[in-house]
Design brief:
Cytochrome c oxidase assembly factor 3; mitochondrion inner membrane; mainly alpha; membrane; 82 residues; 4 helices; 62% helix
Amino acid sequence: MEHQPTREKLYSTSKGYGFSPALQRTRKPFVVRNLLTLAGLVTFTGSVYAYSLLAVKQDDFSDVPMPSPEATAAALAAEKDK
């Protein structure tokens, strides 16, 4: 019986890295679709990131009461004495 390489071996190089000519021919029809998918994913990710930053930047915490620095210092000193 003649030794035939497995299906995976047909598409890989002998050293196990890089693209063989067979794999390059196989991937060629999908280059445009893959690039469009990449552009869509990068656009979506970038827009979600930008929206998140803009949404956080708009938060207004003026209605949240802040304790005075003297009260905070007094509370820390009282806690330290315990």
